[in-house]
Amino acid sequence: MNERILIGDLSSHTGKTVSISGWVSVRRDQGKMVFFDFRDRTGTVQGVVLPGDGALMEIAKMVRNEYVVSVSGVVNARPERNVQADKVNGDIELEIKGIEILNESEPMPFDISGDTLSVDEGVRLKYRYLDLRNPRMQRNIRMRDKIITFFREYMHKNDFVEIETPMMMKGTPEGSREYIIPSRLEPGKFYVLPQSPQQFKQLLMVGGFEKYFQIARCMRDEDTRGDRQPEFTQLDFEMSFVTQEEVLAYTEAMFIELVSSLYPEKRISTIPFPRLTYAESMEKYGSDKPDLRENKEDPDELAFAWIIDFPMFEKMDDGSMQAAHHPFCSVKPEDREKFLKGEDLFSIRANAYDLVLNGFELSSGSIRIHKADEQAQVFDLLGFSEEEKQAKFGHILEAFKFGTPPHGGFAPGIDRIVMLLENQPNIREVIAFAKTGEGKDLMSHAPSVVSEKQLKELGIALITKDKK
Ligand code: ASP
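# aspartic acid complex -> structure
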């Protein structure tokens, strides 16, 4: 066999004998002739076995859809009347001279060649590796890679350093329940999975990096809430010596360049992005993520908006008070007095901002507190006892005593960005191995039970609920 030629490059080999490898997308047996569509990562091409070679015809008759094959043949220009101008390789055809079956395949559990959006999602998630062969899913995941690569390069170009932060840590309060990991070496003790790298990125500012970023996986144990995943990905970043204005300007320029370089066909409704205070947005649109598109039917319109001046605290359903974003946001200078006195708490605004796109919250961020006494004041107002404060955040309060620079940051959600740019109906379509809204992996059946032995090693006993 000759060296493998990629299907996408075939047209430059017209008239030559080549070898390709890939899958059989379609097989059409017309008796005397057998037609195929072959597929590799670069595209598809039609091939034909002509009458004459009995042994070859026999193999051609055995091959089924999704078999993996190596095929040799001559690349022929198609006669004018058979050219499919709108298709890649629509002007060529492979006259097959040999087929080697590299692996067979059972029939597909669902049609992977059409738009799999109409297929039951449970089946697609169970056979995700087959669903991923579909052209739309291939594009989603490949564009995700391009978007992430764009961000990485943009960050590096602007002097940011990519730094990994721990996946096993002590909690960061971001308003969600945490996933916990039992410690075997210290039974009864637990790590948690990060809801975001928030504390670490701030500590990296204490550590003198000034500009940090990470393509960060975040884990949040939320009840089923629409289009959420228990784990998701953020472009997490943090800068020292910045103003809110600088974070906004940097981010805005980055998104404009992302769109113009990867999605030039799309149009951003308003540049500079409109800015609304939280209060204005709530009053005008009844929402802090207004959809400002002029034409909601236009798949190429992108309406970004900034929402600023979020409240620092919010009242929970049970009457308790929580940090509206997280407790590390700094307070607007105008509201500082109230903050220090602990008065009229729900009217205090933070230097906190969101970026919204077409009615979705893309990102949250803030200029942070960088002084230990102010940070302690937030914890006091949130009702933490001295002991709790030390147990949970002693390390942060201590770090802030050692020359912490003023700093702030942001964390755009990658899944939502890809979903919106690719006009996909939900984030599962842009995550290779997505879980259901209930957090289940239907392919490998996670979460699952673990052995008695493992539980014992961890010092864990299960309380089984009575079956009624
Ligand atoms: N950690 C925050 C979040 O996940 C983002 C930030 O404040 O930078 O929403």
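# post-check
The chain has a mean pLDDT of 95.
Residues 174, 196, 198, 364-366, 409-411 surround aspartic acid (CB under 6 Å).
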